[in-house]
């Protein structure tokens, strides 16, 4: 095999980012399983443990990963923090969870961040809405005054609550650039583009048709990665993996030169879109 070509010294650093609603590892493959296998949302199972291992394999090759519908350590996950487990398996040095629905031993439901790089600041935010339990996990990489801000979120089903939550996130990142917002938005790219507050924020929606739901026959693109003007999108796609009721979305971005030093070794080939993953 010929040696792998190295990028030129002046090539821009590129990050591979991934967003995935992992459905606490349940791995639904058809609508009837919401009923027939719904018990896996409350009780541990070997199928979920096996599926979690496949999710860990999927993460390898990315730099910053935002996960939704994770369990931080309850009965259904065998009292194991799923984000810690995935980070260890895939060889990542940093992880963080935000629990948004604390049901004690029954469920520790929330958001997860896994990264090859250590953020200098991480904060957890509750989001408004008709029902509680929605949040945003914000991490900043680099250094104050020269940082990449990353927000991981899972928005509400209802349009009214979702609009409030988008407005809250826009307020959180106001004045920051570059910014990445990734998560399950429960709405299409067109609905995001039409949101007036999001439009004024400058955050851009990747307009390509990237259907992610349901995973076994994707028709709706409801999982998104938004970028600010300070980031160049090199490519984006959906990964062909039925490991949840959603499919993961990935994006490769070019960083501004001033941020390159904060992400050593980030330049790498893009992960293949629509590739099998277990």
TrEMBL record:
What does the record give under GO molecular function?
A: endonuclease activity
Domain Endonuclease/exonuclease/phosphatase stretches: 18-246
Q: Which UniProt keywords apply?
A: Endonuclease, Hydrolase, Nuclease
Which ranges does the record mark as transmembrane?
none
Q: Which GO terms describe its cellular component?
A: membrane
Q: Which GO terms describe its biological process?
A: GPI anchor biosynthetic process
The record's section on InterPro entries has:
Endo/exonu/phosph_ase_sf (IPR036691), Endo/exonuclease/phosphatase (IPR005135), GPI-anchor_lipid_remodeler (IPR051916)
Query: So which domain of life are we looking at?
Result: Bacteria
Q: Would you tell me the protein name for this molecule?
A: Endonuclease
């Amino acid at each position: 095999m010929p040696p792998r070509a190295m990028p030129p010294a002046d090539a821009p650093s590129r990050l591979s980012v991934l967003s995935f609603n992992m459905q606490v590892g349940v791995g639904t493959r058809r609508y009837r399983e919401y009923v027939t296998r719904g018990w896996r949302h409350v009780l541990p199972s070997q199928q979920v443990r096996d599926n979690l291992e496949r999710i860990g394999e999927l993460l390898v090759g990315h730099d910053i990963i935002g996960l939704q519908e994770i369990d931080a350590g309850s009965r259904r996950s065998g009292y194991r923090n799923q984000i810690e487990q995935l980070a260890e398996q895939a060889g990542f040095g940093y992880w963080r969870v935000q629990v948004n629905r604390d049901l004690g031993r029954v469920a520790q439901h929330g958001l997860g961040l896994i990264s090859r790089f250590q953020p200098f600041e991480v904060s957890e935010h509750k989001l408004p809405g008709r029902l509680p339990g929605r949040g945003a996990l914000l991490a900043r990489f680099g250094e104050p005054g020269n940082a990449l801000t990353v927000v991981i979120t899972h928005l509400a089903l209802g349009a009214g609550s979702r609009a409030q939550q988008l407005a809250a996130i826009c307020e959180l990142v106001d004045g920051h650039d570059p910014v990445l917002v990734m998560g399950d938005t429960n709405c299409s790219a067109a609905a995001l583009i039409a949101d007036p507050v999001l439009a004024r924020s400058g955050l851009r929606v990747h307009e390509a048709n990237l259907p992610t739901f349901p995973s076994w026959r994707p028709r709706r693109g409801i999982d998104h990665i938004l970028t600010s003007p300070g980031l160049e999108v090199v490519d984006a796609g959906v990964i062909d993996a039925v490991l949840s009721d959603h499919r993961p979305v990935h994006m490769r971005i070019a960083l501004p030169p001033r941020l390159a030093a904060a992400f050593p070794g980030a330049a790498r080939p893009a992960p293949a879109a629509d590739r099998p993953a277990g």
